[in-house]
Amino acid sequence: ARRSRDTKMQLNAIKTIHEAIKYVESGWVSALSAIHLEDGKVLVKAQVHHSQSLRKKELMPWVSISSNKTIIAGHCQCTAGLGGVCCHVCAVLYSVISATSL
Predict the structure, then answer these.
(1) Contacts 24+ apart (CB under 8 A), 15-22
(2) Which is nearest to 91 in space by CA: 18, 6, 14?
């Protein structure tokens, strides 16, 4: 199994990460926004195109991040996103990384 260069932990969703990068680079992620909550958490959301059909209404995945940058939760309306991990949620996270690395 592949492991993270940084943490050496096993990467279980490597395909999801690669798909998320493609989504961001293809411009399929839009309307990225963040809501800062009183307890230091940040709720990040965006509009992301479906992977199987560009005609369907865009998905609205979101991610909750703690003040120490730990991912608390993620959600998407797609079938895979019901478990909290999908390429759409990952694309939101990758968009945040891309936006803050400028």
Answers:
(1) 16/85, 16/86, 16/87, 16/90, 17/90, 17/94, 19/51, 19/87, 19/90, 19/91, 20/87, 20/88, 20/90, 20/91, 20/93, 20/94, 21/94
(2) 18
Q: What is the CA radius of gyration of the chain?
A: 14
What pLDDT, in 10s, does the model give residues 4-61?
Answer: 566 665 555 667 788 888 999 999 999 999 999 989 999 999 999 987 777 889 999 9
What is the model's pTM?
0.79
**What does the angle CA 15 – CA 9 – CA 23 come to, to the nearest 5 degrees?**
25
Name beta bridge partners: 30.
47
Sign of the torsion angle spanned by Cα atoms 70, 75, 81, 82: positive
The secondary structure element, H or E, covering residue 45 is strand 42-48
Q: How many CB atoms lie within 10 A of CB 79?
A: 8
| Cα–Cα distance for residue pair 13/85, rounded to 1 Å | 8
